[in-house]
Amino acid sequence: MQRHLFSFLAASTVLVLLHVATARDLRNVVEPKTPQTCTSLKASGEDDTKAIQKALDPCTKGKAVALSSGVFHSGPLTIPSGVSLLVEEGVTLRALTDPTLYDTGAKTCGTIDEYGVGCKAFITMHGAKGSGIYGKGTIDGRGSSIMTGKNITWWHLASNAAAVHKFQNNPRLIQINNSVDITVHQITLINSPMYHLVASETHGFTVWGITILTRPSALNSDGIDPIGSQNVTIAHCNISTGDDNIAIKALTAPAKHISVLNNHFNRGDGMAIGSETNYGVSDVTVSGLTINGTHVGVYVKSNTMRGGLVANISFENVCISNARQPISLDMDYYHHHGNRTPEFRNITLSNIRVLTNGTFIIHGMNKSNTIEVAFNDVHVTKGAYWSVRNAKIKGSWVEDETGHSCGYAGNENLLPYS
Ligand SMILES: *[C@@H]1O[C@H](CO)[C@@H](O)[C@H](O)[C@H]1NC(C)=O
Ligand SMILES: *[C@@H]1O[C@H](CO)[C@@H](O)[C@H](O)[C@H]1NC(C)=O
Ligand SMILES: *[C@@H]1O[C@H](CO)[C@@H](O)[C@H](O)[C@H]1NC(C)=O
Ligand SMILES: *[C@@H]1O[C@H](CO)[C@@H](O)[C@H](O)[C@H]1NC(C)=O
Ligand SMILES: *[C@@H]1O[C@H](CO)[C@@H](O)[C@H](O)[C@H]1NC(C)=O
Ligand SMILES: *[C@@H]1O[C@H](CO)[C@@H](O)[C@H](O)[C@H]1NC(C)=O
Ligand SMILES: *[C@@H]1O[C@H](CO)[C@@H](O)[C@H](O)[C@H]1NC(C)=O
Ligand SMILES: *[C@@H]1O[C@H](CO)[C@@H](O)[C@H](O)[C@H]1NC(C)=O
Ligand SMILES: *[C@@H]1O[C@H](CO)[C@@H](O)[C@H](O)[C@H]1NC(C)=O
């Protein structure tokens, strides 16, 4: 009895220490709890935009509007401060496909132009505190559906735009701006016409146990993008999409104190930091990540067009298979040149396993602006191709990996999968 108790206490202590050592979000984050319901709605089978918005607006702070049965069809929605949306298991919230509903005023939503900012998001939070999206239901952006009044799909518009080096005006699925303590829990997000879940300049952002499942051919369909946000935890998510699975950016404000814990990626462009590093990205830990089938695995990118200091970045307990570029740390991303100075300092790779062949990139800017990376227990397969330049490297990788399975990358006890 006593010995069991002792080993239990010893084990808990180790877990607590590990947690402190690993998490970078300064908050103490635990699995979110679904709020109580203020109103429950059933789908009408018609346009439910007004019904949902009418329920959200007066909902008591701290509570949620529950979508409790059926398939809801809706245009853009705004979640007020303090209020949450709960999409219950078996329920789907589907975005209407009429671009005019999302238009920001210039009548460009659903067209191609030089800017790509003509649509508002399907779900918006702005200046919110303590809002969230919860539930085991699904939010469907319908990127593969023909737009109302047009003859092509949102995704087709995106590939047409890419073909002429312009931008599609497509709605993002969820856009959170200038908010505090926002939670996204359990929900499944599919088929966004554009990025799935973006949090700009948000302090306190917890994304826990969500699934993103979108076709790899969907251009610009990033999974989760914290942009200029701080105190962020993204844990236990399963992401498969057509662009960066997670992209941490600092386009308009610094991004820091970010924990990315125990996630799994299938298709996508990988775990990215940048290329918008302008205001600096620091104190990021990515721990317990399994990847199977992304283009790039771990991706830190900037260039002299962006600039910014990228520092104190730790990737640990990561296992990668079937990625063309399992690791790419690139200060000269796409050779886009400007007059800013990117700096990559104190990037650590620890306990990394790469099970399949690929190209590894470690590119500093030049002899006087090198990239600083430390390798610790990094195992790759024999014959992998390494392109290394302008780099100050501590430690090295070992070409001895022969495994065929990732498991949970070795830290399944850190935060139990729920
Ligand atoms: C991050 O969280 C810590 C701990 O709760 C808090 O003290 C700090 O103010 C937060 N940072 C921001 C930018 O909100
Ligand atoms: C869609 O409509 C445009 C004109 O608005 C036409 O040029 C184009 O061929 C049509 N595409 C398809 C796939 O029908
Ligand atoms: C949210 O911020 C983005 C820039 O990060 C901006 O493009 C967008 O217009 C903002 N949306 C709202 C509703 O303020
Ligand atoms: C992730 O989601 C995919 C597709 O739904 C599923 O096949 C896979 O088992 C999930 N993986 C994990 C680790 O949950
Ligand atoms: C480097 O980053 C690690 C965390 O990733 C941090 O613990 C350490 O203090 C940093 N070292 C320096 C010299 O900044
Ligand atoms: C990196 O971490 C060290 C040690 O915690 C800290 O002193 C330094 O300010 C951090 N760098 C940045 C850019 O935040
Ligand atoms: C190295 O790159 C930096 C920009 O990161 C630039 O300011 C500097 O002039 C370059 N130095 C050399 C020797 O090319
Ligand atoms: C993969 O590994 C083999 C040796 O096992 C090597 O001959 C080949 O060039 C490698 N391919 C790539 C793309 O790195
Ligand atoms: C990666 O996924 C493929 C199926 O797409 C599967 O056959 C393979 O075993 C997976 N590899 C690992 C290491 O999980």
From TrEMBL:
Coiled-coil blocks: none
PANTHER family per the UniProt record, alphabetical: PECTIN LYASE-RELATED (PTHR31339), PLASMIN AND FIBRONECTIN-BINDING PROTEIN A (PTHR31339:SF9)
BP terms from Gene Ontology: carbohydrate metabolic process
Signal peptide (residue range): 1-23
UniProt similarity note: Belongs to the glycosyl hydrolase 28 family.
InterPro entries according to UniProt: GH28_Enzymes, Glyco_hydro_28, PbH1, Pectin_lyas_fold, Pectin_lyase_fold/virulence
Protein name: Glycoside hydrolase family 28
A GO MF label: polygalacturonase activity
A Pfam family matched in the record: Glyco_hydro_28
Keyword terms: Glycosidase, Hydrolase, Signal
Superkingdom of the source species: Eukaryota
